[in-house]
Amino acid sequence: ETLDWPAMAISRGVSSAGGSSDRCFQNLRVAWPLLEEVGRTLQGLQLLSESMKICRPVASAKSLTSWASTPYFFLAEGNYPFPSTYITFSVGPGLSPLPPWPMREACSQLSSDFGIKVVGSLKDVKYEVQLGDIKVEVDWIRSTGTGSQLSEAQIRDSGVLNFASAISKAAAVWYNVTKDKTCFEVPEDSERPSRDSVSSPSASESCAVCPPCDGCPPCPVSQCSHDDKPCNFTGEVPKTFSWDGIFCNDDMSQVDAKGLGRDIFWPPT
Q1: What is the pTM assigned to this prediction?
Q2: Burial (Cβ within 10 Å: 0-12, 13-18, ≥19) of residue 266
Q3: Nearest CA to 122 among 216, 27, 199?
Q4: Other residues' Cβ atoms within 10 Å of the Cβ of residue 152
């Protein structure tokens, strides 16, 4: 009941309850399966990338939707009624401030009626989305639709490219906080680290091999090491090193359940 509360709290900021609009909330809920359906073909993927001002070709539409949905956590962290550098300095480009109420700023791009029709239950994550000739049926983590049969004319006539542009402009509240980008670098989805990709052993378990894989970087410290020697590390560390260190030292875990029918994310995780 409570596992997806963080995602629900983030989503509140893009709804009328958070000072934005429910239209923005509803558009974001169906954006991800809709865009991924269009991106099933190379032609569709190229059209989406152009509309979203992506610098280089990407391998899949999943990379685009992951990139575009990621900023909402950071915008929620910095969703103050005044310009703030708190989150941009912590994990972003530096002292470039987010605008006041950045989630409302993002929603200013997504509060229009793009003509998207939804049938079914968003709450149960079992629904159909239609925009022009684009149709996609969503059943929990699975989606099927007309993406592979769409012509360029059908994609353009549907209006989905205008929607994709709006999605990108909303994400740019975070990604272009410095106001100097003309296009965006999108990492492939496989490059994104997962909190679940590396697990640490509990006190009752045997110690894990460190590093945990052949391509993993050396471990600066092992949970199973009891060496009392002072640390003499002299290399460079990222700005978020202290954040990671706190969670490592305290054996804390952030549950990241989302997409369960009560927030703006998809697919369920």
Answers
A1: 0.81
A2: buried
A3: 27
A4: 12
